[in-house]
Specification:
Pathway: Cofactor biosynthesis; adenosylcobalamin biosynthesis. InterPro entries: 4pyrrol_Mease, 4pyrrol_Methylase_sf, 4pyrrole_Mease_sub1, 4pyrrole_Mease_sub2, CobF. GO terms for molecular function: precorrin-6A synthase (deacetylating) activity. Keywords: Cobalamin biosynthesis, Methyltransferase, S-adenosyl-L-methionine, Transferase. The chain is an alpha/beta fold. It folds into two domains: 2-139, Cobalt-precorrin-4 Transmethylase, domain 1, CATH 3.40.1010.10; 144-255, Tetrapyrrole methylase, C-terminal domain (Methyltransferase, Cobalt-precorrin-4 Transmethylase, Domain 2), CATH 3.30.950.10. The protein has helices at 19-27, 41-54, 77-99, 120-124, 144-152, 168-174, 221-239, and strands spanning 2-8, 30-35, 62-67, 104-110, 134-139, 163-167, 182-186, 202-207, 215-220, 244-249. The strands form two sheets. It has a five-stranded parallel beta sheet, sandwiched between helices. The protein has a five-stranded mixed beta sheet with strand order 6-7-10-8-9, sandwiched between helices.
Length: 256
């Protein structure tokens, strides 16, 4: 039997990696590091840094890098994602069959936490379908929402009020979620908040959270939105990629 540890590593600050994550990393026989192309080389560079700094000198852990399959950009998004996950599961299965033919402990370093808008658990669940049964262990990590609220020094929710976590795609398609006092938005391809009437909405935005290039903006949406759009375009051009998250609320949360 092969065991697979999905290890949450936070969003870019090595200090955010938990002791449990360090133990799981050192217990692995094999660590798989995905490469996502030159534009996102920062992501694999951080994983390499963590392996270099956190693996004990006596460790016999093997580190194997692989190219992540590309997702089809066709219009039927959910079907394209489903096919993509299947392709990734096949790659994982082949790598574990090659490098752990007799079984053992494999590990993946997951950006943020495996539970929040990450598909590693779903992909791991498909491994049996590609002939590689695994026992999955999850090591939780710090999420981008935790870093966002910490850096802005705000709570995630207003007093006694719910918060909804959604994607930029859903916010653009469906608007403000019913009964939500605050909305946390992830996986926004670019300024989905522009689809909302801005009056009375406050935004806390962050890009490259936890990394040395972290950028923060906050303010009433009607004023902050143009600045965020401009900064986002400049940062994407400068670094070749961008990962941002934001929280919207009908009132500044710290007023509660």
């Amino acid at each position: 039997m092969t065991r697979l540890s999905l290890i949450g590593i936070g969003t870019g600050n090595p200090d955010h990696v938990t002791l449990a994550a360090v133990r799981a990393l050192n217990a692995a026989d094999l660590v798989l590091l995905p490469r996502k192309g030159d534009a996102k080389s920062d992501l694999v560079d951080l994983r390499r840094l963590l392996c270099r700094d956190l693996l004990e000198s006596s460790s016999r852990t093997r580190i194997v890098e692989f190219d992540l399959p590309q997702r089809d950009t066709r219009s039927d998004y959910l079907d394209a994602v489903d096919d993509w996950h299947g392709a990734i599961a096949r790659v994982w299965g082949e790598l574990m069959a090659t490098h752990l033919p007799e079984g053992g402990q494999a590990a993946m370093l997951i950006w943020g936490d495996p539970s929040l808008y990450d598909s590693s658990l779903r992909i791991a669940g498909r491994l049996s379908a590609v002939g590689r049964a695994v026992e999955v262990e999850v090591v939780p990590g710090i999420t981008s929402l935790q870093v966002l609220t910490a850096e802005h020094r705000i709570p995630l929710n207003a007093v006694a009020e719910p918060v909804q976590i959604t994607t930029g795609r859903r916010l653009r398609e469906r608007g403000w979620p019913t009964d939500a006092a605050s909305v946390a938005v992830m996986l926004d391809s670019g300024g989905a908040f522009d689809a909302l009437p801005p009056e009375g909405l406050y935004i806390w935005w962050g890009a490259y959270l936890g990394m040395d290039k972290q950028t923060l903006i906050e303010g009433w949406l009607v004023d902050a939105a143009p600045s965020i759009i401009e900064h986002r375009a400049v940062l994407r051009e400068r670094h070749g990629w961008i990962m941002d998250t934001y929280l919207l609320a009908r009132t500044p949360l710290y007023d509660n």
